[in-house]
Design goal:
31% helix, Rossmann fold, single chain, globular, Tumour Suppressor Smad4, four-stranded parallel sheet, 2 domains, 15 strands, alpha+beta
Length: 305
């Protein structure tokens, strides 16, 4: 089945996955074109340019805008589409692709392209860190330290470098004294990390918020209190399966807003992008806006293609 001619803006991060996006681009272009799409390709030249391209594409009438890259590219393109009627579609080409995995489309490139052209649409939640949108997860503490160190060593890190960075960060295992207001509940912790999830997975497969539902209008919050370094490695292993939530030092909350207070700078990440927050307050809240995302096409349509 050939789709009705549809203009699609394909935004490509050429650095994602050590150049994987450029390697697969000819196949993606051919598959989308063979399925009836008119594909306009824009290859980004610098970080966050994807957001500007997506913003302009939405206002030029593109109904679907495709992020081809990793988590950061998805965040940048999605941010540019907020407030528009355009649909975010994803062709994964990064290291972890956590947001894409949530869509359960699979790994076959042709099937992924079918979801772009023929896919249904679903509305998913959007979070805000102060004024910065995020679509999957954000974190403060250990996971942010890992992301900062990995990005510092090699912007296009792979799994080996990422896990080596985890081990390096584990040697220091920083802890942070933080006050939290989770909706109307005030708490004080000395903690290793706090992760706020719309989705379940981050860092290439760590299920820090394994029970999160991406369209329920609430965050899942995972807090890991300060623990001995000897226990941290086994906790990380449990995080790969989501079974860490049974440990007594792990606290899980569900909420719409979190305020974080600290007297010291805090390492923060969103979708692997990093920043150092100055002393003061971080506000993480559920946005009233939703993001429209291309998901699996209906089964009967897939069988006809």
């Amino acid at each position: 089945m050939i789709a009705k001619l549809e203009r699609i803006m394909l935004i490509v991060n050429p650095h994602s996955g050590h150049g994987k996006s450029i390697d697969i681009l000819p196949y993606v272009d051919r598959y989308l074109t063979d399925m009836g799409a008119k594909v306009d390709i824009r290859i980004t030249e610098h970080p966050h340019e994807a957001s500007r391209i997506a913003y302009m594409a939405a206002r030029c009438g593109y109904k679907k805008v495709v992020a081809m890259g990793g988590n950061g590219t998805v965040n940048s393109v999605g941010s540019g589409l907020l407030g528009s009627d355009s649909t975010l579609a994803i062709i994964p080409a990064g290291f972890s692709n956590d947001y894409f995995k949530m869509l359960d489309i699979g790994k076959n490139l042709k099937e992924i392209c079918k979801a772009v052209v023929f896919g249904d649409e679903a509305l998913f939640d959007v979070g805000m860190i102060n004024s910065q949108p995020f679509f999957n997860t954000m974190g403060i503490g250990f996971d942010a330290e890992v992301a900062i160190n990995a990005n510092k060593n090699n912007k296009n890190f792979g799994k080996l470098i990422y896990f080596m960075t985890i081990l390096k960060t584990l040697k220091r295992l920083p802890a942070f004294d933080i006050k939290l207001r989770i909706d109307n509940l005030d708490l004080t912790y000395r903690l290793v990390l706090v992760t706020v999830g719309i989705g379940r997975s981050s860092g290439g497969g760590f299920l820090l918020t394994p029970q999160a539902i991406a369209n329920d209008g609430k965050f899942d919050v995972c807090i890991l209190e300060k623990i001995d370094r000897s226990k941290m490695f086994s906790t990380l292993i449990k995080m790969l399966k989501g079974t860490h939530i049974r440990k007594p030092e792990v606290k899980i909350f569900r909420c719409k807003q979190i305020e974080v207070f600290s007297d010291k700078p805090l390492p923060v990440h969103y979708e692997g992008e990093t920043l150092i927050n100055k002393r003061g307050k971080i506000v993480i809240q559920m946005s009233a806006e939703k993001i429209k995302v291309a998901v699996k096409p209906k089964k009967e349509l897939v069988n006809e293609i």
